[in-house]
Amino acid sequence: MQFSKGQVVVHPQHGPATVEQVTSRVVQGVTRRYVSLAVHADGMTVALPVEVAEEVGVRSVMDPAHVREVVGVLVAESEPFDKVWSRRQKNNTERLRSGDLPQIAALVRDLTRRNDEKPISYGEGNLLREGLELLAAELAIVLRVSEERAVELVESAVRDRAVPEPLAGELLLAS
């Protein structure tokens, strides 16, 4: 992946970030290129070697085709959940940490619906909040809406199990 100053990318754990600079550093006598990312959510700066950025999961912001895929996941039926909390928590944590938007969308969908039926645990609530923040932050960039609006669209898709009309229109505009 090529990086340029001002480019918006997505870090799997921190969400959308802007490339601040690409520099060379000498570490233990070896010159390596590093990319510095300014994370949108909290202003934190993350620096990592360019050659491992893709391995870590840094990627471009999703395109409209991926938005459609994510929305399809949000409106789909929920997956059955493991009744053993520790296995369920491990599985959900892996889904969130994967950085894969369809998996994160499925996590948000499943935990939101379970929470609507019966309050979920504190740990699952944290995973739901983190997943929703990551998903909404990226959707807000792609659809050019506020993060609050993106959260509303995600929750509407999950709860109503249909693509909300505003989202369908915004998807067409983003194409």
List the SSEs and their pairings.
Layout: E1 8-11, E2 15-27, E3 30-39, E4 45-49, H1 53-56, E5 59-60, H2 64-75, H3 85-97, H4 101-117, H5 122-143, H6 147-160, H7 165-174
Description:
Helix content is 53%, strand content 19%. The chain contains seven helices and five strands. The protein has helices at 53-56, 64-75, 85-97, 101-117, 122-143, 147-160, 165-174, and strands spanning 8-11, 15-27, 30-39, 45-49, 59-60. Strands 4-3-2-1-5 form a five-stranded antiparallel β-sheet. Helix 4 (101-117) packs across helix 5 (122-143) and helix 5 packs across helix 6. The longest helix has 22 residues, at 122-143. The two termini are 23 Å apart.
In terms of per-residue confidence, which ranges show pLDDT below 50 for 5 or more consecutive residues? Answer: none
* DSSP strand count: 5
Termini Cα gap: 23 Å
Q: How much strand content do the residues show?
A: 15-25%
The sequence of SSEs as H and E is EEEEHEHHHHHH
Roughly how much helix do the residues carry, as a percent range? Answer: 40-55%
Largest sheet data: 5 strands, antiparallel
Shape: globular
Overall pLDDT metric: 90
- Major beta sheet, strand line-up: 4-3-2-1-5
The helix/strand class is alpha+beta
Radius of gyration: 18 Å
The helix count comes to: 7
